[in-house]
Amino acid sequence: MLTLQCPYCGVDADETELSPGGEAHLKRFGPGSTDEEFEDYLFARQNPKGVHFERWRHAYGCGKWFLAARCTMTLEVFGTYSAQTTEPPQTIKDAITAKRPGWTWGTLS
Amino acid sequence: MRYSGFRVIKEALTGHKGWTAAWREPDPQPAYDIVIVGGGGHGLATAYYLASKYNQHRVAVIEKGWIGGGNVGRNTTIIRSNYLLDGNEPFYEFSLKLWEGLEQDFNYNAMVSQRGILNLIHSDAQRDAFIRRGNAMILNGADAELLSTAQIKERYPFLNTENARFPIKGGLAQHRGGTVRHDAVAWGYARGADSRGVDIIQNCEVTGFRIENGKCLGVETTKGFIGAGKVGCAVAGSSSRLMSHAGMRLPMESHVLQAFVSEGLKPVLPGVITFGAGHFYVSQSDKGGLVFGGDIDGYNTYAQRGNLPVVEDVCEGGMAIFPMLGRARLLRMWGGIMDMSMDGSPIIDRTHIDGLYFNGGWCYGGFKATPASGYAFAHLLATDTPHDTATAYRFDRFERGLMIDEKGMGNQPNLH
User: Fold this and answer.
1) Interface size between A and B, measured as CB pairs under 8 A
2) Is B410 in CB contact (< 8 Å) with chain A?
3) From start to end of B148-287, where are the E strands?
4) What residue numbers bound the domain in which B367 lies?
C-alpha cells in the first residue's frame, strides 16, 4: 500500500484515498507557443526509472491537489509538498539527495 | 531440426538423445545490418519476419535479461481482434490471422486455442456501443456475434446474471479469439529466427546509441559496441528509458499491470470472459489454473510488482460476476511494466534520427499484437515504409491531433 501525507490536511492517506495525476511541474504552453512546444506540453513525459515528481489529489479526503517526490523503481516516498510552487522546496530536494546522491530530473538536481 | 509427430516417436525410441538446443547462444558480431533491441515477443517476432519474409539474415536481437522473462511471459495470454477504430481493427485482425497460421509457420506448438472471447454487456448504452464495435469488426473481416442473456445463461451457467451489481444484459462474442501459451510464442519465434541466421544475444543490456551527424551507427552494450545499419527498439515498459539515450521524450508512461493464477481446477470455464464494468477478465489455462487480471495500479512504476488495493479490486470484480471463484485459492500473482501511451494505441515508426526505429506504446494489449507488430516492424525496417495495417501508428499523430483513442479517455495514460 502506497501511503502519502497530504500537505494540506496532514492526513497520512492510503493510495485508495488518492488519485494519481501524472507528471508534476509541467510548463504550460498555450496560445502563442509553437506546435512543438504545445505537443510536448500535452504529450511528452519524462517517465524516469528512479526519482520522479508527480501530481496527486486527495480525492476521498480534503480534495486538494498536491505534489509528491517518489522513486518509481523502489516505490519509496521522499516527501510531499504544496502544489502552489513551480519547483520542489529545498527540504524535499535534500531528502532526495540524502538517499539518491547526484539525482537529476529534467532541469532539476 | 524440424519438429513433428514422427520426430517425437523417433526420439522416444532412441532415448531422446537427438534433441538439440532450440537456439544458439552466439557472441555478438562487430556489426549487423539490423539490430533489434529487446528480445521480448515483439522483438523476436520482428527478427523472425525479417528473416523469413523480408530476406534479412544479418540480424541480431539484443536482450538485457533472458528470452521470455519480460511481458511476453507475464501477460494473461489472450488473443482477440475486437477493436472499434479504423486505425486499430485492420491491424489486430491481421494479427489474429497470423496467430491462426502461426504454429505451422514457425513449426512450434504454441498451443493456439481459439476458444472464444466474450465481452459482457450490462446496460443499454453498453449494448449500443458493443453493437457498433461488432459491426466495425465485421466490416474489417473479423467475426462478431451479439449474444442475448438467455444464450449467455445457457453457455455460461455459472455467471451471476441475476443479482449482480451489474446484471448481465448480453454479450459480444468473438469466437476466433482465445488464448495462446505465451512462453511458447517467445520460444517459437526465437527458434524460428535463430534457425534463419538471426543472432539472439541474451544478458546483454543496451546502454546507449552511437549517433553521429543525425545517423544511428549502432548500440553501446554491456558486451561492447555493436554496429548496425538500422536499429529497431521494441522494449515495452523500458521504452522511455531506452529512447532517452537518443534524447527523445516519448508520449508514454510506464505502469504496472498485475496478473493472477489460481490453483489448477477441472475445466470450468469455456473460453475468455471479460467483465469491463468491474475491470476483470479471466480464462482457464490448459493446466487448469484460472488466469485473470484487471486494471493497472495507476501511477508510474518500474517495479515489476503491484500493490494490494488492485489485488482486492480485481478479486472483488471476479467474485461479483463469477461467485464460484471464491472457492479457488490464489496460487501466484505477478506484475509487468506496460508502456502506456497517451492515447492507448501503439507506435511503429521511424524516429527523427536516421537509422533508428521504434516500436512501443502497446499499453496492456501487446501480447495479442505480437505477430502483426513483428510483421509490421519488420516491414518498416526492411522497406522504410509502414505496413498497410500500421499506417496510423505514427509519432506525428499527437502533433497532428489524430489520436487513436479507442476508449475515448484523452491524453491520460493511466485511464486507458
Assistant:
1) 72
2) no
3) 170-174, 178-179, 199-201, 206-212, 215-221, 224-233, 252-264, 272-275, 280-284
4) 27-81+83-108+182-252+343-415
